[in-house]
Write a structure and sequence with these properties.
The structure is a single chain. By secondary structure, this protein is mainly α. It has helices at residues 2-14, 17-26, 29-43, 48-62, 105-108, 115-135, 173-181, 188-194, 214-226, 228-251; strands at residues 85-87, 93-96, 109-110. The chain has a 3-stranded mixed β-sheet. Helix 1 (2-14) packs across helix 3 (29-43), helix 4 crosses helix 6 and helix 9 packs antiparallel against helix 10. The protein is globular, with a radius of gyration of 23 Å.
Length: 261
């Protein structure tokens, strides 16, 4: 009981009011206590590499397509919807509307899993994956940078594999990311502003657009004739992707045209 009280104090002191409101809406109180307990242990680690590794595990416990430990039904691809009810292992409603339509149980309810058990399960999965990769002798070098301004030398990369974001926030990644980023110390208001930095953002005021090909401009004009703001959003997206593609071209090694195919 004492430990629970200490965790509650730690939880209440960690978040400012608006972020606290966000958490109370999307996470059960018991889940919040479990997560702050995990986060506190991770944050107290002395080795930065271990911290980063466990933070990734921590985030994966929260952000999943249909499972996870939040009250959101889908964090992977759509705007998250809050469950109508939380069920225990026997199908009894322990949170929410006790009279929800049981015929739609799959879409309206979920069973909230233990954060500790989920963390342990995903930790074991990642450890097995790391062991398997190490046996192959390939050790990745992971770094972070802006795809529109890569911190790489010219003509130094053999191959780029990428999955670009969709135009105009077809998938609003911040909607999902903020569920774990608030635990990383970000304020909910700051994350809302941070969304404007994402490729595909709808913020176009004072944006410096790129010169685009005629075909692309024609497509933007078609959209603008129907919706001016949507046209500007599309122009920003293509401008951002042009910058990204230019960087990819810059860092890729030239193709050896003497190779026989």
């Amino acid at each position: 009981m004492k430990n629970r009280e200490n965790l509650a104090k730690l939880l209440n002191g960690y978040f400012e009011p608006k972020t606290r409101e966000f958490l109370d809406y999307w996470f059960l109180k018991d889940t919040q206590l479990e997560l702050i307990s995990l986060w506190n242990q991770i944050d107290n680690l002395n080795t930065e590499e271990y911290k980063n590794f466990f933070k990734i595990i921590f985030s994966s416990v929260i952000i999943t397509k249909s499972g996870g430990v939040s009250l959101a039904l889908d964090l992977g691809h759509t705007r998250p919807h809050k469950v109508k009810a939380v069920l225990d292992s026997n199908g009894n409603v322990i949170y929410g509307n006790k009279n929800f339509d049981r015929s739609k149980k799959r879409y309206l309810s979920k069973s909230i899993k233990s954060s500790f058990e989920e963390f342990k399960r995903r930790l074991n999965q990642n450890i097995k994956s790391i062991i398997s990769e190490n046996n192959c002798g390939n050790i990745p070098n992971i770094s972070f940078c802006d795809s529109q301004k890569l911190s790489l030398e010219d003509e130094t990369i053999d191959l780029i594999i990428t999955s670009p974001p969709y135009a105009s926030n077809a998938i609003d990644y911040m909607r999902a990311h903020k569920f774990s980023l608030v635990w990383f110390g970000y304020k909910i208001e700051d994350l809302t502003k941070k969304r404007n930095d994402y490729i595909g953002s709808e913020a176009t005021a004072n944006y410096c657009f790129e010169d685009l090909p005629e075909y692309t401009n024609n497509k933007i004009a078609e959209v603008s004739s129907i919706d001016t703001n949507r046209g500007k959003v599309l122009k920003r997206y293509f401008s951002e992707m042009k910058k990204t593609l230019k960087e990819m071209y810059r860092v890729l090694k030239p193709v050896n045209r003497n190779i026989n195919h």
